[in-house]
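Backbone-to-sequence.
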């Protein structure tokens, strides 16, 4: 009897493993279709940008095409989750997909279902926290930020060495300094210091990540008094991590902004001159104009 029971348990284990492997394989296909779809849609928008800018008919036609394409992917996720309702990674991925179609509540619902299965799932907790932060920034309604900080604190306890989570916590702290100060019982200056430590940890864990370095450098802009030398140094370090012209243009623009903020008017133009001229035109032109006004001699009334 004991041997029969052992054999039964072994068979059950094999069936469970095989079932999970099949589910993972099916999910991999859905994820691939998801990625291909988002890439295709981005391409459609970029190619047709000039046509749709002032043509409402073209806008509607492209919107319908995009909607049909997204609905195909959505159906694949729904079908998969009907078949495997307890698949946590699928819930997390589907939630992320729903953010692409601006279904905010649907995304949160999926991540909460994932957490119902795995309360310690760091990816789901991170998604909930960052999504609540995004909603607060977009709507200027910060009711969910207390929950966001709680979720992020839990994430860092679970996965303290994941650089993305460190970066996301720092970004939340910088974006909601006043709320964070109240939540953690610290001063705003202490929250800023906490954010910079989180950025430093993220960069230490992933030293070649341009986005991490850029966000850290940008965080100096909101500090009072403005730490000009630290900001400039951070941006030049970030410049070394750039791999695309658009990234280089962004860094040179930010260096120019740092010069402007520090009232180093004579340095602004030289930073802007290093830009390719193919991106961030409105911002760079406005900065040049504002700097020119600052440098122009003031008229003295007779």
């Amino acid at each position: 009897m004991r041997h029969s029971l052992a054999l039964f348990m072994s068979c059950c284990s094999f069936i469970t493993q095989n079932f999970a492997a099949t589910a993972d394989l099916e999910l991999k296909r859905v994820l691939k279709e998801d990625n291909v779809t988002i890439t295709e849609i981005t391409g459609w928008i970029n190619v047709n940008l000039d046509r749709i800018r002032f043509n409402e008919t073209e806008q509607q036609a492209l919107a319908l095409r995009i909607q049909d394409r997204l609905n195909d992917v959505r159906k694949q996720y729904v079908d998969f989750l009907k078949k495997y309702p307890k698949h946590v990674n699928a819930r997390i991925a589907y939630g992320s997909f729903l953010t692409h179609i601006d279904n905010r509540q649907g995304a949160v619902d999926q991540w909460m279902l994932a957490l119902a299965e795995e309360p310690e799932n760091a990816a789901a907790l991170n998604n909930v926290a960052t999504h609540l932060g995004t909603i607060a920034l977009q709507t200027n309604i910060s009711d969910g930020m207390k929950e966001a900080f709680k979720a992020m604190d839990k994430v860092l306890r679970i996965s303290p060495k994941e650089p993305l989570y460190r970066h996301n916590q720092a970004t939340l702290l910088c974006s909601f300094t006043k709320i964070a100060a109240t939540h953690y019982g610290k001063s705003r200056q202490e929250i800023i210091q906490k954010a910079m430590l989180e950025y430093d940890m993220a960069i230490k864990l992933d030293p070649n990540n341009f986005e991490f370095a850029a966000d850290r450098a940008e965080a100096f802009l909101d500090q009072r008094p403005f730490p000009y030398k630290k900001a400039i140094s951070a941006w030049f370090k970030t410049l070394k991590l750039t791999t695309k012209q658009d990234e280089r243009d962004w860094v040179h623009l930010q260096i120019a902004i740092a010069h402007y903020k520090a009232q180093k008017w004579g340095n602004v133009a030289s930073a802007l001159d290093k830009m390719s001229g193919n991106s961030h035109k409105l911002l760079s032109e406005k900065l040049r104009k504002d700097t020119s006004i600052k440098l122009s001699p003031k008229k003295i009334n007779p």
